[in-house]
Write a structure and sequence with these properties.
single chain; mainly alpha; 0% strand; globular
């Protein structure tokens, strides 16, 4: 079993090692020997070109701003919506949940043109608002939070209601702290999804000042900075892009599958 897992790990990690190694090669060596793991001549020219001769720092800043706000927004709004669908009794709840499931089944590319029309019509096209607001909630996140809240015993909330706590107070002070594993899952998925988002930013912005990493790195494929294959340049940008997501995952991965805190004796 360990041998099989080791082989699978090598298969999955090999492309990443090739990517990092190629980013330190010269253009000539990268084109002639693209899969070697040890560059014959170590070169940081690709990284220097990214940070000195391109708008890569601007791309990184825009991606960081959007990702932070989208992640915080999804944690808050997905939790609110999930709790409402799991605990509150109101007319049309079943229809709303059915609509949520239907939205999850629709490919995102189908919504690009309607999304552009709405963003343009309400006057937030080519702004940070237009980049962030449409991503503040997602159906999958609401679905995850709803299912997790339903797994928490309702008796947890009874004592707080007896003491006079309102619905939001019960949600914020009692239930939400117990949903830490689900919240961490939402944080990781939201961070990764917004950091790697491309199609939404294509239809929401056009100014170079609002270009994100995904759009900027995609533009490198068209030879924006120089001619030739540009393998080191492209892979250096891709390697830098993976760092925040990898750090986020390694920080929170052990907490994803943890059970809820604060068990209740029945």
């Amino acid at each position: 079993m360990y041998a099989i897992l080791t082989v699978l790990a090598i298969i999955y990690i090999a492309p990443f090692l090739v990517q990092v190694a190629t980013s330190f090669k010269t253009d000539v060596e990268a084109a002639s020997n693209p899969i070697s793991l040890l560059p014959q001549t170590w070169s940081t020219a690709a990284y220097q070109k990214l940070f000195v001769n391109s708008d890569f720092p601007v791309w990184f800043k825009n991606s960081a701003i959007v990702t932070i706000f989208v992640t915080l927004g999804r944690v808050f709004f997905n939790s609110l919506a999930g709790y409402a669908l799991a605990r509150l009794q109101f007319r049309g709840r079943a229809a709303i949940f059915a609509g949520l499931i239907a939205v999850m089944s629709v490919p995102g590319v189908v919504l690009l043109i309607p999304k552009f029309l709405v963003i343009n019509q309400i006057g937030i096209y080519d702004t940070y608002v237009g980049m962030i607001v449409p991503l503040l909630t997602d159906a999958a996140g609401v679905f995850i939070m709803k299912n997790f809240f339903e797994s928490i015993p309702a008796s947890v909330e009874e004592q707080a209601r007896i003491d006079g706590a309102g619905t939001f107070r019960v949600f914020w002070s009692i239930v939400l702290p117990m949903a830490r594993p689900a919240l961490i899952t939402i944080i990781i998925l939201s961070f990764q999804g917004s950091w790697n988002e491309l199609s939404h930013f294509i239809v929401a912005t056009q100014s170079p000042e609002l270009t994100t990493l995904t759009k900027g790195v995609a533009s490198l494929a068209s030879g924006q900075l120089s001619q030739g294959t540009q393998y080191p340049l492209k892979l250096a940008a891709a390697a830098i892009m993976t760092i925040p997501v990898a750090v986020m995952f390694f920080i929170f991965q052990k907490r994803i599958m943890n059970t809820t805190d604060g068990a209740v004796k029945e």
